[in-house]
Structure formats: structure tokens, C-alpha cells
Amino acid sequence: MRIRHLWRNLARCAESATVSMSKMDVVGGGGGGGGGLIANNKQRAMIPNKSRGEFTRNQRKDSEGFSEAPDLEFEYGDAEKWAAELSELYSYTEGPEFLLNRKCFTEDFRIHVADKKWTELSLAEHRAHAMRLLDSLEVTARERRLKVARAILYMAQGTFGECESEAEVQHWMRYNVFLLLEVGTFSALVELLNMEIDNSAACTSAVRKPAISLADSTDLRVLLNIMYLMVETIQQEVLADSPEWRTARDTFRTELGSPLYNNEPISVMLFGMVTKFCSGHAPHFPMKKVLLLLWKTILFTLGGFEQLQQIKVRKREDLALPPLPEDSIRVVLTMRAASPPASASDLIEQQQKRARREHKALIKQDNLDAFNEKDPYKADDTREDEDDSDDNDNSLEPETFPLERDEVMPPPIPHPPCERVSFPKGLPWAPKVREKDIEHFLESSRSKFIGYTLGSDTDTVVGLPTPIHESIRTLKQHKYVSIAEIQIAKEEEFQKTPLSGGEEEVEMCSIELLYQGILPNLPQYMISPSSSLILLAAAPTSKAKTDSINILADVLPEEMPTTVLQSMKLGVDVNRHKEIIVKAISAILLLLLKHFKLNHIYQFEYMAQHLVFANCIPLILKFFNQNIMSYITAKNSISVLDFPHCVVHELPELTAESLEAGDNNQFCWRNLFSCINLLRILNKLTKWKHSRTMMLVVFKSAPILKRALKVKQAMMQLYVLKLLKVQTKYLGRQWRKSNMKTMSAIYQKVRHRLNDDWAYGNDLDARPWDFQAEECALRANIERFNARRYDKSQGNPDFLPVDNCLQSVLGQRVELPEEFQMNYDLWLEREVFSKPISWEELLQ
């Protein structure tokens, strides 16, 4: 009994966020282990008369937990379905404002049209009324302007009071939004938003208030709601769209990405709002809506993941590079999820089974028992093969792993043992080799067989044995030249030959305009709390480090709840609010990193380096240092309160049971989307960067990442395994020996570099003393790139043209300061008359 309590406490510690990293490694990251054990104890109390064998089966079923869970049917994309994206704009606290918007529209509409509904008017009448509302936005009275803005918002919401179904609401949303775009509403909204941003009185009032609520951001929320609905609706392409709507969409996309608003893209203005909020100067800004609008604007103007793939293919064609070996998106979609490693409850069950077996057999031949458990050809219960944990097994594992059965092994067939051996049908990725890898291989081969090296020469193979020739031929066959390598080589050429290299032709696309817009303040956007502290504040594991930043300003009501039901509803709303913020931030950062990397590698490196400076790597690891399965399966939503359901159907009476039940979905789409995005960001920041990979090791990310493998979703597991692969060589032989299932999964799912000793510490570039030099050299290259391309005023004076014409030089007008003119006589006496001049030397 004492042992049972000891193991139960250990399992509870395993899912605690404050556990030390060494303990996490011992228990195998069993975030759900404690929960499973508690459930078993409850069952033990409820079924005292059950037989021991039946109880053991129930306990085994519970302890398997997520291991036997089905694959998550998750389809990764740029965003969720349109209806879900619309509903996430509004918090449940904003529910009463739907009727207020309808009232404002109806009062104004009845003044001009008395006997018809909006849906019964002609196009000309619709356009005329929209123009009247737009003209009314220019009034100076704030209350009147807010009423007109609410009426426009009701139009953008689909005039739901005259609709009978959600599909009808969405139809009129599209119609009204394109009508508002046609009459020029968006430009007027941008001007009003600028006025609200610069409203110092509102900022001062918000800073002085002890508690900020929904009422402090009413004007901003109405404007941001309209703008978000317009951007989100217009970017939805439908086959039935008219040619006029298609043209309007393309024009609107170009305008959003161009510096037409205050000589900067609208994304730069929204970045400024984030920075102003995080600095504490405008705590009333509705940050969730700002981040959602920023995300949708970037997604619309730059393009999503499919557009990124198309841009990549086109750029490789322009640079005369061979086509991509495969479409990474399609490969990931065809992959299957692997069974996760054993959890802490599995360890406990394993110990209990061993204890029972030893007690029953009354023998002490531990070695024989261990051998029987490890027998790969054992024909008993197949579940016995999965009992041993990754973390506690210190020997090589010859049994058939669940990972192998799921991915590459066929179903077991009762044949003799010699026929049970099978091989992978094929790996999902084509191998890649860098030019640098071929150089390293040749350098080591020449040093070994000849005794000298030839530098970067990859063609001369004189004196090398035939097997080396075969190896070089194979490496060159799979050589992959990336766009980034070509861009780095061109930049080096520009730096070496600034005069003869000529002018660089820079394509002024949307991503280039955005980079130029955010370049002066990009360190603030990344290092300031814009990307880090908000992420930390929205992470469920954060405590009191973000008290100075109130991210709940646009979700908390003026009057706090007084009943238990209201408190539960607000709790769901707050958790949902945080999840949406994490979703928007992760999508923004990932999109910017991927687009910058395609546009120019040093733009990507500049942003990535400042994210690293902003502690993005430990923040993301802290985010994953929680029960990630609980986060992904969280049900922080009330479907009957989601827009547009709540404005079309009568709301049922909410009860505590209905709030606790949530929806019937297997997982929360936005939370799984956020987790995958954060893992992809972490991969982007650490890829080919040994110093940043060492940060993963120093922060003990391996047990945290291993827990994320419990999520049976192929794409998420792929990026977790990538992160584990890059640090495997630093984790030591014992870790590799104890985690053979994870090593097997890495081999099956992650792309191979033919001569990459990822599982061992033989990498020539992994020298700790070069880590700081690596980052410093990268930073110097980035600064030279930015100075050469964007800082024209700071050009090297040695390379500027010189005027050698005496008449031209003497004829230039020189502006002299006023003090110099007043003391001109003194200057002549001191600098000219009092100093002897050797005219012979001067004339020579």
C-alpha cells in the first residue's frame, strides 16, 4: 500500500508544471499519468467485488489512455472554416451588442425607407443607403458617429434580423461587404481607426483606471469588427462570385499590401497598435481583435501555405534550380500518426505486473524474467510487447514497437519466427545533401587516404579509392541547392564588388513593402512584449509575470458576474479568449517567417534573430510544459452563443451541465493549429543553428517534446521528432539507448541527410566555442545586407561619386550657420591670416 501511494505521488508530480526536468525525464513525460491513476483508484473503490483478473483488464485499459486513442482527424490549413473564424471575433460578453447594432441600423433605415425590408431593396437603393451611412461617419459628434458605425457593422454582419438561417446570413454578409467596399467604406474606417489610436484622452483615461472593461474599447471594437469582417469575407473565394467581385478582391488585396494608408501598409499600423498596447501606453486596446485583423491582413495580402509553395516553385524556376523533390504539404497529409511512448501510468502498471509475476512464481531469476519479457517472438498477449517504457528501458529493444507496426510493419501473421522479419516499404521523404556536406565528406576522405585537402573542390577525386567515388556520386545525385544558398552567394558578391556588381533589382511585392515598413521598428515588434509577453500571458502555465499587461480588456464586462452560471460562462470566455490570442500570434509569426525566408534569407534571419533575443525559444517550451492533451481536447466554447447561430436561433436556457459538456468534437481545432504553428516556429528558429539547438538542450526540452508525442496527429508528431532529432547527438548515449522507440520514429518520419550523424556526436560544426562567433557573424551579415539595400544615406563615402570640376565646386551654395556668420572676422584672423602659407608647395 505504501508503494502504491509512492507511485501515485510520483505520477501526480509528473503532470505538475513545476516538476524538475530531471524528474520529467524519469517518468517519460506522463502528463496524463496522474489522472489515469486517480481514475483507477476511484474504480477500485466502486467495484470491490470484481475479480482480480477483470480489474486488471480495466486498469490496463485505463492506463493505456492515449496510447489506444484513435488518430485525430485534423486537416491543417491556413485557417478554420469561415463560420468558425467569424465566431471567434466576438467574445460571449459582447452578445448583447448584436441587438444594439440592429437597433441603430433600423432607426436610421426607417427614416429613409419606411415600408420595405433591406432584403427587398434594389441594388441602386442599397448603394444609396450605404453612401448615406458613409457620409454620416464624418460627423464630429462621437455618439452620433458611433451609432452610424454600429449600423454599418450590422450591415457587415449580414442584416441578420431579416434572415431565417445561418446560410442566409452568410449570403447577405458577402453581398453587404462587397457593397461597402465598393462605396469606399474601408478607407474611411482606416482614418477613423487612426483617430482613435491617436486619441490621447482615451489613452490617459485608460492608464489611470484601476480596472479596464469592455466599455473602454467600444469605439475601437466596432471599427475593428467591421474591418475584420470585410477582410475575412472578401478573401473567401467562391466559384459563384461575379467577375466584378473577383476584380474588387484583387484590387483590395493590392491596396491592403501597398503603403496607401499614412504611407505605410495597414499591417504596419496594426503592429504599431500592438507595440503601443504592450508598452502600457494604451491598455484599453482590444488586443484579440487587433491580432486577428493583423493575421487576416497578412494572410490575405501575402498568401497562405499553398501560395507559399507556388512562390517557391516559381522562384526555383527563375533561378534555374531543379524542381522540388516532393510537395511537403502532400507528404505530411499522407503520413499516419505513430503510437506515443509509454506514459507514467504505464510504468506503474508495468511495476505492478512484475511484482505480481514475481510473487506468483516464487522465483528470483530476474535475468530470466527480463529475458522472457524481451523475447520478440513471444506468442502470448501482444500488449505485453508495449509495456516497457522508453525512459526506463536501458537495453536495446528487439521487440516490435507500436511505432513500427503503425507506420511500416504489416499486420502480424502467424508464421514461424524466421518469416516475421519485414522491411520498410519506403521512407516518405527524398534524402537531401548540401554542398557543404559533400565538401566535409571529401575533406575527411582526402585527409584519411592522401594526407592533404583541396578546400572547396568537390570534383577532384584523384587518389581516392573506388568506394569513395561511389559515395561521392550518390551524394551528388541527391544534392539539393536551396533558394537561400543562392541569395547568400549573391549578397556576398554584392558586398565584394559594390561598384562593378551593378544595382540589385528588387521586386516591390507585398512582402517586400511590408519588410520595408516594419524594418525601422522590427526589433521592438519582436523584442518588445508584442510577440513574447502576450504569448506568455495567454499560455495556461503562466502565473504572475504578466500582471502589467491585461490581455482581457476586451472580454471582461463592466459588472462582474454574481451567479455561479455567469462565472462559469465568463471562465469559458476568458479561456477561449486566450486560446484565440495564441492562435493569432502563432499564425502571424509563422507566416512572416516563411514569407521573409522566400523573399530574402537575411530578412528571415533578421526577424528570427530578434525572436531569439526576445526569449521566444524558452517561451514556446514553457507553453508546451503542460498537459498538452488536455489543452488540445479543451472545450472552451459554447456553440449556441457562437455567431451567427446566436442571432438566428432562439437561445436555450444555459445550465451548468450544458456549459461543462461543451461540444462533441474530438479536439479543439484552434489549439491543435496553435501547437503545430509553435512547433514549426521552433523548427524555423533552430534549423542549422547549433547555438540555438544547444538552447533546446540547456532548457531540457526533450522530455517536454516527448510528452507532445502523445497527440496522435501526424503533422504535429513530425515537427516534434524534427526538434528531437537535431538535439539527439547532445543528449548522450544513455538517452538514446532508453528512447529507442523515439529514435525509430525519427528514422521513419523525418527526412534523412545521407552523411548526417544525427544520432551521434560526430558533427564537425558542433563545436561549442564557435556558437557565439556563429551568431555574431550572422548578425554582421544581416546588418550589411540591411545597410546596403535599405539605408541609402549611410553609404560608404569612398564609393560616392566625386565632383572634380573647380567651377562646379566653387559655384555650390553652402549654408553657413548663424553663429559662424556673426564671428566670421574672428575665424578669418585665427584660421587664415595668423597662419603662414607656403604658396610654392600649394601651387605644386
Automatic annotation (TrEMBL):
SMART domains found in the cross-reference section: DUF3402, N1221
Far11/STRP C-terminal domain span: 465-824
Domain Far11/STRP N-terminal, first and last residues per copy: 69-367
Cited InterPro entries: Far11/STRP, Far11/STRP_C, Far11/STRP_N
Top-level division of the source organism's lineage: Eukaryota
Biased composition regions of type Basic and acidic residues, renumbered to the chain: 360-381
GO CC annotation, single: cytosol
Residue numbers spanned by region Disordered: 340-408
Localization annotation: Cytoplasm
Residue stretches of biased makeup (Acidic residues): 382-396
The entry's keywords: Cytoplasm, Phosphoprotein
GO biological process: cytoskeleton organization
Primary role: Plays a role in the regulation of cell morphology and cytoskeletal organization. Required in the cortical actin filament dynamics and cell shape. Part of the striatin-interacting phosphatase and kinase (STRIPAK) complexes. STRIPAK complexes have critical roles in protein (de)phosphorylation and are regulators of multiple signaling pathways including Hippo, MAPK, nuclear receptor and cytoskeleton remodeling. Different types of STRIPAK complexes are involved in a variety of biological processes such as cell growth, differentiation, apoptosis, metabolism and immune regulation.
Family the UniProt entry places it in: Belongs to the STRIP family.
Name under which the protein is recorded: Striatin interacting protein 1
UniProt source species: Paramormyrops kingsleyae
